[in-house]
Fold this protein.
Amino acid sequence: MSTIKFSIEKELNKELGGETAKLGRAGILETPHGIIETPAFVSVGTKATVKALTPEQILDTGAQVVLANTYHLYLEPGDERIKKFGGLHKFMNWSGPLMTDSGGFQVFSLGAAYGKELSKIIKITDPSQMITERSLDSEMPRLAKIGADGVSFRSHHDGSLHYITPEKSIEIQHNLGADIIFAFDECTSPTEDYRYQEEALERTHRWAERSLEHHQKLVHASVLKNTSMGKVGPALFGIVQGGREKSLRKRSAEFIGNLDFDGFGIGGSFAKEDMETVVRWVNEILPKDKPRHLLGIGEPEDLFMGVENGVDLFDCVAPTRNGRGGTLYTHRGKINVRNAEYREDTGSLDPECNCTVCKNYSRAYLCHLYRAHEMLGGTLGSIHNLYFIINLVKCMRESILNGNFEEFKKDFLSKYLFHQTT
Amino acid sequence: MSTIKFSIEKELNKELGGETAKLGRAGILETPHGIIETPAFVSVGTKATVKALTPEQILDTGAQVVLANTYHLYLEPGDERIKKFGGLHKFMNWSGPLMTDSGGFQVFSLGAAYGKELSKIIKITDPSQMITERSLDSEMPRLAKIGADGVSFRSHHDGSLHYITPEKSIEIQHNLGADIIFAFDECTSPTEDYRYQEEALERTHRWAERSLEHHQKLVHASVLKNTSMGKVGPALFGIVQGGREKSLRKRSAEFIGNLDFDGFGIGGSFAKEDMETVVRWVNEILPKDKPRHLLGIGEPEDLFMGVENGVDLFDCVAPTRNGRGGTLYTHRGKINVRNAEYREDTGSLDPECNCTVCKNYSRAYLCHLYRAHEMLGGTLGSIHNLYFIINLVKCMRESILNGNFEEFKKDFLSKYLFHQTT
């Protein structure tokens, strides 16, 4: 018995068949903490806070749901502590739907890269050595060790040693108490060879089964404890991996899709040009009646790609990270409002945007805040960027419901990408 | 014709005479951008932003008025630019009453201390050399030079050279366009000798006359330009100086109090034990029917002292600076919520406080935010601290109106200071 319910309101263009048919759909995802209208962009609240924003400000961006990071919260302040406080909703004062990721991605990137900054694309120095032991920096070997059972890694905070298994990841996530949680997986780099991708995928599949089994055990125990027999425990999403390999992605979608998950994540560190084919291969196979979440993706052009290929949920740190740095989305492409050219610009950041920042502040004021290192710059930039991206996906949803998705996409991207590249 | 109107609603204990009489009063200060109920704490928005807070959040703290810093805004983004944008209210999206200081304090502290961090107490290495040239660091001489006409100083940003006269300060402040502005003054250190204090005071008095004269000229020119003959230009407050010397403070209160200012600032870098006598000397002389602002003071015990000795307005960076660092006010004294002891504390920050932070978050969550270097910590800490201090002064006002100021003071300070010092 799932604690969430997903229903499809309208499909993008069901009437077209075969290669021409788009997989996109508009739906409603009901969770114990409220409804998510899909497709939707999920705001990232890594350490139990969407950086620089209060919950009221998060709501003002139009956010319906927040995703927190299991890896970070396990290390600090600790999932047991958050459980003792009544769970993540109460701890962070967010009463809407909440998700946590599995921690897999961070274990392999941050944990393995203790002391280093890494982008989502994991850099492998010597792939031949990477079968059971992955070092992301030749000077710092053995920080993340993969065994059949789980992964040992060192904290990126203090170098302390930790061991995460699928069961442990599920336990941590049950302690955190989000509405939707993810199975533990291994996120591979696109630079890995086929042999490693296949081995990692088999591991991810075994971990998926073990995650599911342990989740069901915890839910069952929780049901027995509750006299009301209500729906207890979070919903669990399985994660499809397989790198850029068509055969592996299809195998993964079939395997994960056949397990009794409540929804699915599509994981991986993508090269941009691979993303569309991968998403399409996977979503043609995954059961249509369950929600799909494309993990870690959030640039406008990628969101259009995902939505038309059947993705219901997205999350990405880009809007808030960019927002703190002064790189702000506009309908005419991204700009860095910190640049000297904006010091005299009395205009609003994006005249086509209805957010509170665009309605109340000039580019010059924003420019001043960033140049003066004022925290308000990061706050206003994050509010705007989140509103922009969340609202963009909302407009995609509207356009699916109104039957003009293609038109909306063409109209938006022609302006956005034209200015973006010139 | 003043653009503000001040009326006294009730005096603390008028019936008592002589030494026993307290000078405190509750009043209403009307400005072109709204009413300030006094006594009131003024939030500091140094660089056209109350650090870490949106204008909506500033309002939520109960703030009635914001004070921005002339020195900072003159250097960056520039007063001419802000004028071009329609003034500070519009630039920073604050529609309530606004003040700017004269820049004097910062010219002598920040400007003179280019590359150094200084507290409000200015450190003088060799007072004998300080008559016309002040160096706050023996390795960085001649950064601020005082002449009869004004002060030349170097920007604390980039070391560029600037020259500020009383006329220039008034012009900058007219460009910024606040409701209440201050005359240019020299803020001396309490460590200076009598001879220097007297010389500086004479300079401050001459500068006060010149500030007033130039202000009236600008207002007159502005009136002539306006066909509507409405009230134009800001109100101007003169500043009383004189260090810790009774004769100088009294001379200054008489001199400044007799000039046609709309209100008065009481300036100076005080030793804590001198503050009460200084404020009392001054306020016994200043005209009762005009508002008085004690500059740069904001700790609870000092606010009580100021209020009962006839101060109507206060400003201080302490609530926001402390808030960003995790030092938070409570009815049981200040605590640093970042300390490890609060990691397990499920209680609210201050159960006696009604602010949004105390109602919605645990000490443990705040502790987590500060320890994780999350910007939200500084935001929530600033909201709470401002609410706490603003509300404390509001309660003092209420207690004057209700006739129980002494009781309220005793009750509050007995708990606050007891826990503060143990």
Remarks:
- The first strand of chain A starts at residue 5 and ends at 11.
- Chain A has a mean pLDDT of 88.
- Residues 5-316 of chain A form a domain with the TIM Barrel fold (CATH 3.20.20.105).
